[in-house]
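Hey team,

Sharing the Dihydroorotate dehydrogenase run so nobody has to redo it. Sequence (489 residues) first:
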Amino acid sequence: MPDSRSYSLKLLVKLNKKIYKRINWQSRITLFVLSLLIGFAGVYFLKDDSFTDPQTNVMFILFFAIALWVTEAIPPFAVGILIIGFLVFSMGYQEAEDVKQYVNTWSDSVIWLFLGGFFLAEGMKKTKLDAALLKVTVPKLGNQSKYILLGLMMITGVLSMLMSNTATTAMMIATIAPILTQFGKNAPITKSLLIGIPTAAAIGGMGTIIGSAPNAIAVGALEGVGISISFIEWMIIGIPVSLLLILIFWKALLMKYKFKAKRLSLDFLTNEQTKIDDTDEDGESETEVNKTQQRIMLVVLVITLIFWLSSQWTGIPVAAVSGIPIVGLTMLGIIDADDVRQLPWDTLMLVAGGLALGLAVQQYGLADYFISLVAFENINIFLLYLVFGLITVILSNIMSNTATATIMIPISISLIQMNQLGAPSVMVFIIALSASCALLLPVSTPPNAIAFSTGMLEQKEFRYGGILLGILGPILVILFVLATAPLIR
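Structure output:
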């Protein structure tokens, strides 16, 4: 799922024309040239005299890519393609055999795992299984305002573990639109819902490998150093910490916004208007077709999840399990060619580019070189965890959290291995999960942009959750990862 500021702004443009502000092509060219200069400057000032040509090339593309991700002169996914193209071009004439590994990131197991998740999410959306599950669960939340808020946030978080957090947020906000209209933009319940739902969507992505792109980057990087993380092993850490953060943020919203209305009705969810029962030439109603498709989708979803969760016992790789939704949903007519074209391929491009850059940075010793410039020997490991967690949040607020993970994870792995501080999996988990805690600005994440586009929130209202989770999030992540890590490895 694209997580860049430019994508957030694009959503704001689509949903609220009044806040549209076009970035013209001249400014993009200026930012591109500036990024290019930063790439050359980084090499000029930080290059060591002993560097070989391949090391110099990797250092250049590292700084150039970072600058492009920060300035967003070109979309983040285009940076991913540029990274692979540059590595193939610059290294190809020197090390023809090794250059294949950068292209092979397109077929990495993480890419296939993500692709399987995309097919599931698209299938749920097309069959409206997500909305059907929502209409079954939401009315069971009762009529207490605070518990309805908690329930909606938890449902959002859980759905975001399997679906795009942007699509989940859009669906949830559309579902609660009658509540927002009834109480108005100044009501505490309105503010709480519009801030709580996008926050829960972003945090919910911590729960599974496919829930957030930084998670996939983390799994791919760990596989590169011989550490395999299964789907259920990630969930053992990711789901509890994400649900705990949602619960804490719910309590924080109740403290900030005092609800005047203690009770809230959700009858509008069950009192839908009667739909016209269109029938096809075979006499089969559209409603019956939709129900059948939903049942098929539910079966495929359950089977896929079962095999993902049991992969460490069945021995079937999670990437291979992704073939179930990819083949099953297309064979059974749930997803067609037009739907496949609409999948977020740009996310896969960004992840593949990130994997290639991380591979090159580690392979040519740049991570070790940068670490050697700073004296880490006497730094307490727990302080180091906190520093990396907070830096990840800060960087993720100003650029793509996938890009942040791409930069931070290879450096952290080399740091842990160089100083013999134990298995690098703990630090990698901390960085990947902390990347989902960047929620300071309306454009920090697409879910925030969707909520802001309603016109019922001011920019300053995101600071409360952004600062709270930006500080508390990494701390809780560190504590929980340290507590549960022995269960994993």
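Residues 5-107+144-264+344-488 form one domain.

Ping me if you want the raw files.
A.
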